[in-house]
Design a protein that fits this description.
29% helix, 83 residues, two-stranded antiparallel sheet, globular, 2 helices
Amino acid sequence: MVRMPDHPRARTQGYVFEHILVMEAKLGRMLFADESVHNRNGIRDDNSPEDLELWVRPQPSGIRAADAVTWAKEIMARYKGFS
């Protein structure tokens, strides 16, 4: 963990998980509230950019079909060109 008390994802004592900071550097932006970072190889202390993958939470349960389509379009626009 890295001490960054002013970071939006800082925990109680002001620390942020390193994998979050590595992903933000890779993306060139802060993570959105619905995004999380996971290790592909399952080794939690392997924070190399190649091992990290960005996850986004699915739309809320019980969503209207029209709202789901709107949400899907927003997600597609957000990650256009992302690989």
